[in-house]
Amino acid sequence: MTLELLIVRHAIAVDREAGWEDADRPLTLKGVARLEKAVAGLTRHGVALDRILVSPWRRAQETAERLAVLLDRGEVVTTEELARAPRKELLRELRSGERVAVVGHEPWLGELCAWLCTGKRELGSHFAMKKAGAATLFGDAAPGGMALTAFLPPKVLRRMAP
């Protein structure tokens, strides 16, 4: 089955030094504002999703809540697989729709992108994503089975907004 995959890094969250446990850090007001504009850019360009897979960490959850406007049908599904380095279990979950988004964290998203495009997770640093940045891939959800169709820094996403 051919998959259209949108990979999104969570938006700007409060600093680690602010006294929050890492998994509990919320988005900042600035992060929310920039994310909403980036989502408007995706909407303007016709991005539609069947499913959103999201890390259980708070900042990813809050990012996915705002991406949910892109759902044609389907749902937001929390998975522990996005709170660690990518494994085969995540690839099985990606096959749950034809147009799927994942929302998670670096360095794991870069590793996922590298693994899907080249078959080599260790090239993840070449695909490092900025906060609220996105990448689109197309193909088979298998190592080396997808093509990178766009790599969109958050500034570009915001410029795409109406």
Report what the structure shows.
The chain is of the alpha/beta class. It has a single domain (3-160), classed as Phosphoglycerate mutase-like (Rossmann fold). The chain is 31% helix and 25% strand. It is built from 5 helices and 6 strands. Strands 3-2-4-1-5-6 form a 6-stranded mixed sheet, with helices on both faces. Helix 1 (29-44) packs across helix 5 (154-160). The longest helix is centred in the first third of the chain and has 16 residues, at 29-44. It is globular. The termini are far apart. The relative contact order is 0.23.
Overview in brief:
This protein has helices at 29-44, 58-67, 88-94, 108-118, 154-160, and strands at 3-9, 49-54, 71-78, 99-104, 134-139, 146-152. With 162 residues, the chain is of the alpha/beta class. A six-stranded mixed β-sheet has the order 3-2-4-1-5-6, with helices on both faces.
Q: Roughly how many Å is the radius of gyration?
A: 14 Å
CATH 4th-level superfamily: Phosphoglycerate mutase-like
Mean pLDDT reading: 96
In total, the number of strands is 6
CATH class identity? Alpha Beta
How many structurally independent domains?
Answer: 1
Which terms would index this structure?
162 residues; Rossmann fold; alpha/beta
Show the helix and strand layout:
Blueprint: E1 3-9, H1 29-44, E2 49-54, H2 58-67, E3 71-78, H3 88-94, E4 99-104, H4 108-118, E5 134-139, E6 146-152, H5 154-160
Parallel strand pairs: 1-4, 2-3, 2-4
Antiparallel strand pairs: 1-5, 5-6
Helix pairs in contact: 1-5
